[in-house]
Amino acid sequence: MLPMVPKFFGQYLLEKDVLSKDQLVKAINYQKSKILKLGEIAVERGYITEKQAAKINNEQKRTDMRFGDLAVNMGMLTEEQLEEIITIQKNNHVYLGEAIVACGFMNQESVDRELGHFKKEQTAIPTVEVMIEEDIPNKSSVETMVDLTGKLLLRVGDLQSKTGRLTITQEPVKNLGAMSVIDFKGSISCRYILNVSWDVGHQIAKRTFKKDDLPFDKELILDTVAEFVNVVCGNVRSKIIEDGKTLDIDPPYNYLDDKDATVPPRANEAIVIVPFYTPIGNLEVAVGYPK
Q1: Beta carbons of 277 and 9 less than 8 angstroms apart
Q2: Fewer beta carbons below 10 Å: N end or C end of the chain?
Q3: Span of 48-57, 125-134, 137-146, 214-223 with lowest mean pLDDT
Q4: How many angstroms separate the Cα of 113 from the Cα of each of 10, 25, 108?
Q5: d(Cα 132, Cα 144) in Å, to the nearest integer?
Q6: Which residue pairs from 186-190 have beta carbons closer than 8 angstroms and sit at least 24 positions apart in sequence?
Q7: From the CB of residue 46, how many other CB atoms can be counted at a distance below 10 Å?
């Protein structure tokens, strides 16, 4: 039996053929349309202006801080105001199950039944922290790369994610669709590899260009994924040099699955692979390091 992996409720319903992919996408879009962003709430309450909200959003591109924490840090919100708007956001949250019912794809009884089965299955899966706690080289740097990838995936691609059990290999890595790589040089010598499915890559491109109807173009998606990798690794570098280390990064180089179905390790290189699971597709963060 294959080991269970962390997944989202939507993935679970897809795998059970309870929902079609088109229905899931529509339900997710409905859910997102009902979500109030912290910045929108803060503007609506009169705590900040739209110009200030835009300034906070722009500053987020240079840091891994969340909108609310950054707004407080920049002196635009008080702790009390932040707490208030977070409460408002939570009270207005629409769960996927509610969205599925609202779209007419399932009734409430069916959603409750499947949700119960889903939760029971997921309780058997170790937590993310347990999965990452393994003896690997440059462990803290790998954790930083994984952490920042997840945060920026949410911020840039509007994608929630869960991580699975890491593996270490010296075998060629299967290309999930689009793969972008950056080399780190200095106190730490390794390469960061982002390996995304086309669904995930397309979503990152849609959100980057702010166009939900963005045509599917592999070259455009690959270029956007490479720019995303630039942002991730720039943030990783900033985090690591805070500890007094020296670190430089090279420009990204890319692989398309049409041309490179697998990407081999370098000579005497081991590769740590951490899988990520999102509601619409999967990806991997891999870190190659000299043995």
Answers
A1: no
A2: N
A3: 125-134
A4: 14, 21, 9
A5: 11
A6: 186/245, 186/246, 186/247, 186/248, 187/240, 187/245, 187/246, 187/247, 188/138, 188/141, 188/240, 188/245, 188/247, 189/289, 189/290, 190/138, 190/141, 190/287, 190/288, 190/289, 190/290
A7: 7
d(CA 32, CA 159): 11
The upper half-sphere exposure of residue 86, i.e. CA atoms within 13 Å in the direction of its Cβ, equals 13
DSSP category for residue 113: H
* 164 touches 6 (CB < 8 A): yes
**Residue 129 pLDDT > 70, yes or no?**
no
Q: Which two three-digit tokens encode residue 145?
A: 């790369």
pLDDT digits (tens, 9 = 90+) for 43-66: 999 999 999 999 998 887 777 678
What are 181-218's pLDDT values in tens digits? 999 998 888 999 999 999 999 999 999 998 988 999 99
Tokens of 188: 């730490």
As a whole number of angstroms, the distance between CA 80 and CA 53 comes to 18
> What is the token pair recorded at 183?
């080399």
Which tokens in the block code for residue 247? 């670190």
Nearest to 56 by CA among 70, 43, 69, 46: 70
Q: What whole-number distance in Å separates Cα of residue 180 and Cα of residue 251?
A: 10
Of 289, 291, 61, 64, the C-alpha closest to 193 is 289
Domains and CATH numbers, the chain: 9-122 (no CATH), 128-290 (3.40.1550.10)
Amino acid 31 reads Q
CA–CA dist 237, 240 (Å, integer)? 5
Angle at which helix 198-209 crosses helix 139-157, to 10 degrees, equals 60
- Measured in degrees and rounded to the nearest 5, phi and psi for residue 17 equal 60, 30
Instruction: Report whether 148 contacts 232 (CB < 8 A).
Output: yes
